[in-house]
Design goal:
The chain has about 550 residues and is α+β, with helices and mostly antiparallel strands. Helix content is about 20%, strand content about 30%. The strands form 3 sheets. Strands 16, 17, 18, 19, 20, 21, 22, 23, 24 and 25 form a 10-stranded mixed beta sheet that branches. Strands 1, 3, 4, 6, 11, 12, 13 and 15 form an 8-stranded antiparallel beta sheet that branches.
Length: about 550
């Protein structure tokens, strides 16, 4: 860059900050026992303010929002941002982080009336959306990982749009930035609201439950030294991410060393799970498999099933068991659903699983699909996954030497866990999960994957090396918003290199195709058929 360009660039930036300094706020809600906008629903006031020596302006009260639909401070459709340089800032203290909660927004997905939104995302992340045309554009979303915002704690948050660049700040420090895919901002008819959005992330409204104070929306890109401040600095917030050094990384260069690492790593993973929940043997707690009346599904018979969970108190796990018609023994597959899924979901051809359990069943596999609960940590279902494998092994129709597992999303994560820890499984299909640790942290993901001690142990992609040398296929959709393709490619390269150390490079493969977060099957069915001897690939 020439000196002239540097000078012009510096002058432009200086003029931009000068303009920001002179800009009057479009909205400034101080919540000193009153509001500028119209109160709707359960809004009250409290003397629980941010502290840290107080603000540089008098501050005696904050607003409390009850989190119910309709609760907000309403500024209407005529108060709007019309240029791409603007700042939204607030002090916020949420009561919980289970769902999307709006800090401030002019955003309504009905009739494509999206302009901008600053929200707390599930798990305590921050997200800043800017729409150039009223539609949704994933490339215009700036979102932190989870665990940035903890319930019950005051934070200063700021979202700054400067030209086509979005930035997020927490307690005065930049935590994330990106250049938006499409420049501009849409100034439509969406209502500008504090603590709610009419419709956001496909649902609405999205109210905030907790406290807000000093919400200021300025039609200029403010610099951090222009933000509202406490007299004493607020604590620095660190984004969660990979450790500087792993305790047990895969560094083996020979097959013998790799097998020693496997044994130690598997034992350590089982210890981490056992710290959360003890495992009971089948003698202590029998599986007690029960089947309901059979349902004819053409090529197979379907049974509603249940088994005793890993608990000394009565606790049943429900599921579906599909048994092919004809003479066994048959190969078998454990089919695992993801977040919010169920046994029924993996048989459904109309949703993101594309009927994968049905496809295996029609291809001559005994299929067991358990309905598993969402736990604080996904790995806490490992003991019940072992029991699900036993369900298949107990069936006389199953060839015990030909059992595999496949799953999508959290089901892919569960597939990793059970295939890594149970060598009796001969093949695995991990769909919509495999990624590097950096990649999983790079976008908002449910923190249930972070079993205490796991993140520090090894890169999460290396857990799949516990499956080696058994065959494993990874399905990595190019547009998967949960596991960015860049990081899944990096993860696969590391796993393939590890498989080479085991002398099994041909046993690992990756299917990349142009889609979002969903099951594919194009490579998975023939891959599993080759190992287990079924006929799912031909069962169109």
């Amino acid at each position: 860059m020439t000196l002239a360009r540097v000078l012009v660039s510096g002058l432009t930036l200086a003029l931009s900050w000068a303009a920001a300094t002179a800009a009057e706020p479009l909205v400034y809600e101080r919540f000193e026992n009153s509001t500028v906008g119209k109160i709707a629903g359960g809004v009250s006031f409290t003397n629980d303010v941010v502290g840290h020596g107080g603000l540089v302006v008098p501050n005696q009260a904050a607003a409390v929002f009850d989190g119910k639909p309709g609760t907000c401070v309403h500024h209407g459709p005529d108060v709007k941002i019309t240029a791409p340089d603007f700042t939204v800032e607030a002090f916020v203290k949420v009561a919980g982080t289970a769902d999307y909660q709006t800090i401030a927004a002019a955003w309504n997905e009905d009739e494509n009336q999206r302009s901008w939104a600053l929200v707390v995302s599930p798990g305590g992340g921050l997200r800043f959306d800017v729409s150039p045309d009223g539609g949704f554009h994933a490339g215009n979303v700036l979102a932190t990982p989870t665990d940035v915002i903890e319930p019950g704690t005051w934070y200063h948050v700021a979202a700054v749009s400067q030209g086509s660049t979005s930035r997020l700040y927490v307690n005065g420090r930049e935590v994330l930035s990106k250049r938006r895919a499409i420049p501009g901002i849409f100034a439509g008819k969406a209502n500008l609201k504090i603590a709610s959005a009419d419709r956001y992330a496909t649902e609405g409204p999205r109210p905030l439950c907790g406290c807000l104070d000093e919400v200021r929306i300025t039609p200029a890109a403010l610099a951090p030294d222009q933000f509202l401040k406490t007299r004493q600095p607020m604590p620095e917030v660190q984004l969660p991410g990979p450790p500087e050094k792993y305790a047990m990384p895969f560094v083996a260069t020979s097959k013998d060393d790799a097998m020693v690492w496997q044994e130690r790593a598997r034992a350590r993973l089982l210890e981490l799970v056992a710290k959360q929940e003890p495992r009971y043997s089948l003698d202590e707690v029998p599986i007690d498999l029960k089947l309901d009346k059979p349902e004819d599904r053409g090529a197979y018979t379907l049974y509603k099933a249940s088994f005793q969970a890993n608990s000394k108190t009565p606790l049943r796990r429900l599921g579906l068991l599909a048994v092919p018609k004809g003479q066994g023994p048959f190969p078998a597959m454990l089919a695992l659903h993801g977040h919010g899924g169920s046994a029924e979901a993996v048989f459904d051809p109309k949703i993101l699983y594309h009927g994968m359990a049905d496809r295996f069943a029609r291809g001559g596999y005994v299929v067991f699909a358990p309905s598993l609960p969402h736990r604080p940590y996904a790995a806490m279902e490992l003991w019940d996954l072992f029991r699900a494998v036993e369900v298949l092994r107990l069936r006389p129709e199953v060839d015990r030497q030909r059992i595999g597992v496949g799953g999508l999303s959290m089901g892919g994560e569960w597939t990793m866990w059970i295939a890594a820890c149970d060598p009796r499984l001969k093949v695995a299909v991990v769909s919509g999960w495999m990624c590097t640790t950096e990649g999983v942290f790079s976008v908002p993901n449910c923190k249930c994957w972070r079993l205490p001690g796991l993140v520090e142990l090894m890169d999460i992609c290396e857990v799949h090396l516990l499956i080696a040398p058994r065959p494993v296929l990874f399905e990595s959709a190019a547009r998967d918003g949960c596991f960015p393709i860049r990081y899944t490619k990096e993860g696969f390269a590391r796993i393939r290199a590890g498989y080479q150390v085991f002398g099994a490079a041909e046993a690992v493969a990756q299917d990349i195709w142009d889609a979002g977060h969903e099951w594919h099957g194009a490579m998975a069915y023939p891959f599993v058929d080759k190992v287990l001897g079924g006929n799912a690939a031909a069962a169109k």
